[in-house]
């Protein structure tokens, strides 16, 4: 069984930042990633633009140069990929971690390919794998997706977009501009206040001029082959429909965290138990890094403010045992 000082689960921006930090401190480590490098970013919409400016997405002070102040997905892929390749980080791709157990202060990590042992484990698995479902009949139809990729697919089609946050609004605008007939179904009374400040006026104007039809205070009740039923303040309404994008957010894999023994708060936030100064969880030697730390509050942590976790964790690991390399 291969032994590492640190096994990092997840090769997103923050898992990579942890790997870099471990390398700088001369500790043996491996990053295990179930998909390609920065798998979540790879699966973002192809034209997606970050709300952060590029310097705020930098890790370890490595300059991130982008064409515009706020980089696009493909520039971020380029940036993080170059960090991995130029620094020859130890990352094993398409290798999913399925189990972690601890015995006698040593962790045993089982992946889809092999079993490792490690003194410390960092969980940086993000929140993009599990969508918040809307739990209505028809949600499993092939015309429904919780991930949006490319507007071309929806041209000349009747598209319903469910949601009021950045992902839903970006998709609605892009698809409308490529010729979709877009309806936006919003549970609350308005477009989300956290929508990017330069995008919000655009969607509000498109709604006001009637280009995109918004149903406020409304929820989808049922999805059928050729129509959807929406519950509106005026009662139920059936509208013709070809495709549904249910972009109602994502959540961390709580089952995985609980399986590792990490305690979660009892309230709806389901916050994992960790020390905010060291990022160490209630299981000694098991750390959390990145957006996974926010539980259901997935807007709380992002790359900008969680990239510091790498430093904090490695400080904690090296302070506690400065002799082991
Ligand atoms: C559409 C969108 C736009 C965003 N825009 C911004 C922005 O502008 N600025 C900003 O700072 N943040 C932004 N965020 C938030 C932030 O970019 C992401 O959440 C970011 O990817 C978080 O990094 P992470 O490393 O914590 O998690 P992730 O990037 O999600 O990485 C987790 C990795 O773990 C892997 N993984 C999961 N489970 C396992 C397993 N069992 N075994 C092995 N690997 C596993 C996943 O494949 C994934 O690659 C955005 C998020 C979204 C969804």
UniProtKB/TrEMBL annotation:
GO MF term list: oxidoreductase activity
Keyword Lipoprotein in record: no
Keyword vocabulary terms for this entry: Flavoprotein, Oxidoreductase
SUPFAM superfamilies: FAD/NAD(P)-binding domain
Record NCBIfam families: Bthiol_YpdA (TIGR04018)
UniProt protein name: YpdA family putative bacillithiol disulfide reductase
Organism the protein comes from: Euzebyella marina
Gene: ypdA
